[in-house]
Amino acid sequence: MAKESAKTTGMEDPERAARCLKFIVLGVFVCVVILIAIFFQEVKTFVLQQLLWFEYNPFVGAFYIVLIYITVIVCLVPQFILTIAVGYAYRAVFKGN
């Protein structure tokens, strides 16, 4: 009886569950990209405000970046994109060479 209920749910196959999870994550990623494209001006304004905040709060900003990194790692997003963006932002804010 227990085997029949497991077969009806479809969760006995770990590969199927993994594929389902991948499709869900991909769907969320696509939705985020679409929302960023739709609200590009608001995102650009938010990023500029954050850069100004980093300029006036460099040490607190470093902790803020650490929190963002933790979120990115938990969400399984590639960190190299964030690393390049943070390096560019700090260079722009602090007028590096």
Structure description:
The protein has helices at 2-9, 14-38, 40-56, 58-74, 79-93. The protein is mainly alpha-helical. It has two domains: 1-38; 45-97, no CATH class.
Supply database-style keywords:
single chain; 97 residues; mainly alpha; 2 domains; 85% helix
- Alpha plus pi helix count: 5
Overall residue-averaged pLDDT value: 78
Low-confidence stretches: none
Let me know the largest β-sheet: none
Helix and strand succession? HHHHH
Overall structural class, as computed from helix and strand content, comes to: mainly alpha
Terminal residue distance = 70 Å
Shape assignment: elongated
Strand content: under 5%
Number of domains: 2
Radius of gyration: 20 Å
Number of strands: 0
- Helical percentage: over 70%
Outline of this structure?
Helices cover 85% and strands 0% of the residues. The protein has helices at residues 2-9, 14-38, 40-56, 58-74, 79-93.
